[in-house]
Design brief:
With 78 residues, the chain is mainly alpha-helical. The protein contains four helices and no strands. The protein has one domain. Keywords: Coiled coil.
């Protein structure tokens, strides 16, 4: 099971590298449009793609980062 987990982590890193290269070749707008077209029929895959893109390009998701930080720190000031 540990080998499977390690292989999945490596596969995710490879996917990130390939997506980053695709974004570089297409440009940000064309890349985002194409990802949306490819995932329009499957919301689970679209969420996964958005999550990966958010990790790779956090500058495009500033509101989500703020909400995550607020959720993490909620109730800690007491």
């Amino acid at each position: 099971m540990e080998e499977f987990t390690n292989n999945m982590k490596k596969a995710m890193e490879l996917i990130k590298i390939l997506l980053k290269e695709l974004e570089r070749l297409l440009g940000r707008d064309a890349y985002a449009k194409r990802i949306n077209e490819l995932t329009e029929d499957n919301s689970d895959i679209r969420k996964l793609a958005a999550g990966i893109d958010g990790q790779m390009n956090p500058e495009y998701y500033p509101n989500e980062q703020k909400e995550e930080q607020q959720q993490r720190h909620r109730g800690m000031s007491r």
